[in-house]
Design a protein that fits this description.
With 177 residues, the chain is of the alpha+beta class. Helix content is 22%, strand content 21%. It comes from Magallana gigas (Pacific oyster).
Length: 177
């Protein structure tokens, strides 16, 4: 019985010593407010990044395309993208052409954007002025460098980078284990 109490005490002390907001993200992922983010260096269409079973990049990493729920989260992602692409012009990439898929669309009902993972309507929005405009049947959401990393709607079949999001406590879970 004494050993059981000792073990319980060790576990409690270890938990108390764990800093709040500990980064439980897998290697290469970024931590912010209980979520882990992966900024995809490869490009994929929106369905490839989120839905396509054969190439669902975010699903394969036990995550989904990002749902931006607060201004703080939006600002964090913008600052990360600015850092990632601060030397884009040095490598011949126009910062204005950099864009990343988000996890929302209005495929079901035109003009009603929802987050796919939670199946919830947007409660926070950071659209670029004049957006969304549904030009040429634009149904999927992106962050675009040309719009200062504010949101834009775009046709879903254009390859872009993407941002995957996982809860910090889920980020290290391996699918199937």
């Amino acid at each position: 019985m004494t050993q059981l109490y000792f073990l319980l005490l060790v576990v409690l002390l270890a938990e108390q010593g764990r800093p709040q907001g500990t980064n439980n993200c897998r290697t290469g992922w970024k931590f912010f407010q209980e979520s882990c983010y992966h900024f995809g260096s490869q490009k994929a269409t929106w369905p490839e990044a989120e839905w396509n079973v054969l190439q669902a990049y975010c699903w394969s990493m036990n995550s989904r395309l990002v749902e931006i729920e607060t201004e703080a989260e939006s600002n964090y992602l913008e600052s990360q993208l600015r850092t990632i692409h601060q030397h884009a012009s040095d490598s011949g990439v126009d910062q204005n052409e950099v864009s990343y898929w988000l996890g929302g669309n209005d495929i079901e009902i035109e003009g009603v954007f929802k987050w796919v993972k939670s199946d919830q309507p947007l409660t926070y929005a950071d659209w670029s002025p004049g957006q969304p405009d549904d030009a040429n049947g634009e149904d999927c959401m992106e962050l675009r460098g040309a719009f200062q990393y504010h949101w834009n709607d775009l046709p879903c079949n254009i390859p872009h980078h993407f941002i995957c999001e996982a809860a910090a406590f889920e980020a290290n879970t391996i699918i199937g284990k």
